Amino acid sequence: MALRYDAGEVLTAMVTPMKANKEIDYNKTEELAKYLINNGSEALLVAGTTGESPTLTHEEELELLSTVKRAAANKAKVILGTGSNSTETAVKMTKLAQKEDVDAVLSVVPYYNKPSQRGMIEHFSAVAEASDLPVILYNIPSRTGVNMLPETVAFLAEKYPNIVALKQSSPDMDLISELKLKCPADFAIYSGDDSLTLPMLSLGVHGVISVASHIFGKELKSMIRNFKTGEVLASRNMHKTLFPVFKKLFMAPNPVPVKAALKHMGLIEDYVRRPLVELDDAQKAELFAVIDDVKRELAG
Known about the structure:
Mean pLDDT: 97
CATH topology: TIM Barrel
Low-confidence stretches: none
Number of domains: 1
Number of helices: 12
Structural class: alpha/beta
Strand content: 5-15%
Oligomer: single chain
Helix content: 40-55%
């Protein structure tokens, strides 16, 4: 069965390049977007948590969106993170996203205030009713402090045709099975953790909303394609090769390590806004050694 909305198999949660003064580097943003599209990314997520959304102004988010849309030039979908722990703000940003003609929005479970399942239903109902845009739900209990249950996701997916997908960031594979059993067949589920993509593929997820795709986008795409076409051993071997990078990219709070990796590749600077801090020299050496080892292994 065709998906109600297909954003692709490798979606990159884009970092936000910054200058030494912590202002956004829009030129580097455009260059990075083009690089990602040329290296396996089928959609770019702007102003997600990997993009440091907690420290971005709404004006900056819209300028980032404009920059990435210009770079994408219809070669990749552009998705805007419009989530908030305020339902009113999430609705407002989703309406703005429709005016800006984005392809879809990502809306996270409200964080910190820890709503009940009924509160989540009311929150996401308001978001879905605010526009005609495809809405991708985002469940990440480690950051929000509360878990959106499969029954809640299924209820929303059944009620709202424009709630089209879920980004699931949780190591509980039983939840993926429950989601696949309860949700409509045309509702897409994405891994929200690179290291869990292969096990989740075995349970029927569509792809990944990725951090590692900044560095190994083509390889992730290959891993997913191989799995879906029955080349399971090749897929497993790619997972094993990339696994050390998957883990090292979270040796410090995201997106600090991936920004350091991108600087190592000569693509952007590694500046982050406080309260995040850049890796120290020892951490950088540890990260770069793993990335370089994996690149040598892939080169054969």
